[in-house]
Amino acid sequence: MSEQAPYGTGPGTSGDPAPGATALKRIRIPHLQAMKERGERWAMLTAYDQYAAEIFDAAGIPVLLVGDSAGNNVYGYETTLPVTVDELIPLVRAVARAARHSLVVADLPFGSYQGSPQQALETATRFMKEGLAHAVKLEGGKHVVPAVELLTQAGIPVMAHVGFTPQSEHALGGYRVQGRGDSADTLVQDACELEKAGAFSIVMEMVPAEVAARVTEVLHIPTIGIGAGAECDAQVLVWQDMAGLRGGKAPRFVKRYADLRTVLSDAARAYADDVAKGTFPDAEHSFQH
Ligand SMILES: Nc1nc(=O)c2c([nH]1)NC[C@@H]1CN(c3ccc(C(=O)N[C@@H](CCC(=O)O)C(=O)O)cc3)CN21
Ligand SMILES: CC(C)C(=O)C(=O)O
Ligand SMILES: [Mg+2]
């Protein structure tokens, strides 16, 4: 690919892809494609609000996903299933308005695209127009190929999602690794068909590392793993998992890079203690006559 580098490596810039560099340009799909061709791995994070988007954008995260995982990470549902288009669009809009460089991908929620390619197009169009998204993501294998084709033809970039697809957890019988044994070939085939249909990238969730490596090798588009081993072109995590904000037992594929839950909890306790003791607010935080 002859596309320019995603970071500020052009004339007049330092060529330093340092986190927060102001020379960063908007990441576009050809940049992701070029990174695959150069063998450069990258990270995707979810984001659901302004500050997360601002921070990850400035940190040089090239793609932000407004996941339907907002269902269990923002709205307090147990799973992603109940979350609606009307609940997700304002979050996508907030992230898109805050992200200066990152490509913003909107997850299409359960029930908003499986009915027909036409339904998928109507939903995706809302995410692009009202949510200001740059691309959409949807779950499924060969059954969603006609939808991927229609969206792509309509000018809407599509990120595919195979392996464990959380919107189908009841049909799949729970949170289980997909693509083991005989089903590996089906997964590879599905991935190939999604690429052929026009998908610009593909998430693989809870897939054996060897199978994900096979898909990454045969596909020309970037693969994004979550519980899919180290050979994917990119990785994705839910940000509250990555930053240790979420409590409880995390899935095996999660690595915590911070302990925000403790940081916030300590801050809240210290604030409440100060208020109880009468040491906050002090003169510095008060207004005098
Ligand atoms: N916070 C959060 N993180 C996620 O990764 C995530 C969401 N939410 N919501 C949407 C989906 C649901 N996902 C999940 C949720 C749970 C497991 C889980 O419990 N995994 C266990 C069992 C695996 C097994 O049985 O083999 C694990 O230990 O990995 C996996 C993926 C991934 N997505
Ligand atoms: C975990 C990622 C891939 C996702 O689909 C989401 O956050 O909804
Ligand atoms: Mg999702």
From TrEMBL:
Q: Which GO terms describe its cellular component?
A: cytoplasm
Q: By its UniProt entry, which CDD domains does this protein fall under?
A: KPHMT-like
- Segments carrying the region annotation (Disordered) are 1-21
Provide the reaction this enzyme catalyses. Answer: (6R)-5,10-methylene-5,6,7,8-tetrahydrofolate + 3-methyl-2-oxobutanoate + H2O = 2-dehydropantoate + (6S)-5,6,7,8-tetrahydrofolate
The record's InterPro entries line, in alphabetical order, gives: Pantoate_hydroxy_MeTrfase, Pyrv/PenolPyrv_kinase-like_dom, Pyrv_kinase-like_dom_sf
The alphabetized UniProt keywords are: Cytoplasm, Magnesium, Metal-binding, Methyltransferase, Pantothenate biosynthesis, Transferase
| Active-site annotation | 205 (proton acceptor)
Q: Give the pathway listed in the UniProt entry for this protein.
A: Cofactor biosynthesis; (R)-pantothenate biosynthesis; (R)-pantoate from 3-methyl-2-oxobutanoate: step 1/2
Q: What is its EC number?
A: 2.1.2.11
Going by the record, the broad EC class of this enzyme is transferase
- Residue sites binding Mg(2+) per the record: 68, 107, 139
Any note on cofactor binding? Binds 1 Mg(2+) ion per subunit.
How this chain assembles, per its entry, is: Homodecamer; pentamer of dimers.
This chain belongs to which protein, by name? 3-methyl-2-oxobutanoate hydroxymethyltransferase
Instruction: Tell me what organism the protein belongs to.
Output: Oryzihumus leptocrescens
Q: Which gene encodes it?
A: panB
